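Q: PD-(D/E)XK nuclease family protein, please. Structure only.
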Amino acid sequence: MKMPPVSHSGLSKFETCPRQYYLTKVAKTVVEPATVHTDWGNVVHKALEDRIMRGTPLPEGMDQYEPIVLKLLGKRATVAAEQKLALTRNMEETYWDDPDAWVRAILDVVVDGGKSVYLADWKTGKVKYDHDQLDMCSLIYMAARPEVQKVKSSYIWLKFGKVTTDEMRREDTPKAWEKLIGRIAKLEEAYETDVWLPKTSGLCRGWCPAGRANCPHWEPKRQ
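A: Structure for PD-(D/E)XK nuclease family protein:
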């Protein structure tokens, strides 16, 4: 079974529960229902992309994001939004749908300052202090752009007006890649063996879309 290109969201889903990953991403017998939160996140991302790339005014209800956009656009660097990057297993940049693509990332904001780059990811949910996504984006970007020596990256928590920041230098990448490749290896093993064991967590209590028919650990939401 061929593994599709690895993204942060897919890898995170696998690590949360291999069985849920299999049902939604491999067998595709279970569909994750859209929520008002995911729908809103998609609308916000599109509006911010249009504002940065095309100068389209932000729609009503998003005016509070304008100062953030202006601060980004005011930097003495090239600013881009929703930039797609893909790498082959040989760490070479390739096109998004290349059958040989190994890892991929969509970068919400890229402020390209040459040897020093800033990446930002819009977040519309609760604040979480997990930098795995930022690290993966930084690694992919630095592999695709050998001239870049430092990447500063941030989650911008739009709902709360907060920013959490990380930084990666070129000399940090070998150890960071070693960690990421170790995580990906477990996903690759699941594809090779076709073994997708369930992993219990609080999500089993009605939050997982698998349902009782697909997983013995599933429970209805508590009233």
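A: Brief note, in case it's useful. The first strand starts at residue 78 and ends at 88.
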